[in-house]
UniProtKB/TrEMBL annotation:
Keywords: Oxidoreductase. It comes from Streptomyces venezuelae. This is Short chain dehydrogenase. GO terms for molecular function: oxidoreductase activity. The keyword Ribonucleoprotein does not apply.
């Protein structure tokens, strides 16, 4: 099936690694123009070059920098049809380990990571004939984990915000949806494996992790498996889907939503 993404333009925040990078590659494969950002210019360069790819270093918490990035991307490609709010990371802390700064930083990252790109892209999305926003979220939003207390709370807020935005932006025909991830094999987990110092090879460590967290499919997900869900929601073919979320979690979600 042709997803209808070719020649359209998509902004993907945090495209230098993991889910963002897989999404950038999948969109390029579909013939779309892609603009992506990350904080580290060298990591962005490691994506390589492509005639339909625009990259620029930008921290999503910095509203002015996000406006500049978005304006440059829209200028390069003649508009913006979709936005994937993906940049971010989680914070492994329990309540008693969490400082005031942790709370502030986590909430800032999660909310600014959606609001800054959306404010910047909104005029361009209004002008698109197939505007779509996808917020990359986590099943933690619906199934909190005490060891990730700030991230769980922030994720719940973002899922709630996504539902409000879907209604607020519907009159402009801008669709807003989420993907809620479980455990996906990306830089986040290779960093944690290194920090854990378990001595187990990465594959074995992952299998133990999946078993410990009750992942029904018994393994971590691959970034490409998330990218397919994101592309499906970005696609003009999903023109009647807004205000919802897709769990991409191998069956770790225990709710019926
Ligand atoms: N992997 C999982 O198991 C999992 C589970 C649930 C939710 N998620 C969420 O899925 C998203 C992608 O995660 P991932 O696992 O693919 O992570 P990743 O491999 O660590 O990649 C994160 C990307 O975001 C960028 N980034 C981080 N902070 C940024 C900021 N303030 N401004 C701009 N770019 C920033 C990083 O580049 P720089 O570091 O150079 O900025 C990188 O490109 C995140 O929002 C994460 O919280 C992941």
């Amino acid at each position: 099936m042709d997803l209808g993404l070719a020649d359209r333009t998509y902004l993907v925040t945090g495209g230098s690694s993991g889910v963002g990078l897989a999404t950038v590659r999948a969109l390029l494969d579909e013939g779309a123009n892609v603009a992506t950002c990350g904080r580290d210019a060298d990591r962005l360069k490691s994506i390589g070059t492509h005639e339909r790819l625009f990259t620029a270093p930008c921290d999503v918490r910095d509203a002015a920098a996000v406006r500049e990035f978005t304006g440059a991307a829209a200028h390069a490609f003649g508009g913006v049809d979709g936005l994937v709010n993906n940049a971010g990371q989680s914070r492994m802390k329990r309540f008693d380990e969490t400082t005031e700064d942790d709370w502030r930083d986590e909430l800032e990252l999660k909310f600014a990571g959606v609001l800054n790109p959306l404010h910047a892209a909104r005029p361009h999305l209004r002008a698109s004939t197939a505007a779509s926003v996808v917020n990359v979220n986590a099943v933690l939003a619906k199934q909190p984990e005490p060891r990730l207390i700030t991230t769980s709370a922030a994720r719940a807020g973002i899922l709630n915000l996504s539902a409000s935005l879907a209604r607020e932006l519907a009159p402009d025909a801008i669709r807003v949806n989420s993907v809620c991830l479980g455990l996906v094999d990306t830089g986040q987990w290779t960093r944690r494996h290194a920090a854990a110092g378990s001595g187990l090879p990465y594959e074995e460590w992952q299998a133990e992790l999946a078993a410990d967290r009750g992942v029904a499919l018994g393994r971590l997900g691959r970034a490409e498996e998330v990218a397919y869900a994101i592309l499906a929601l970005l696609s003009p073919r999903a023109s009647y889907i807004t205000g919802t979320s897709i769990d991409v979690c191998g069956g770790v979600g225990r709710g019926i939503l």
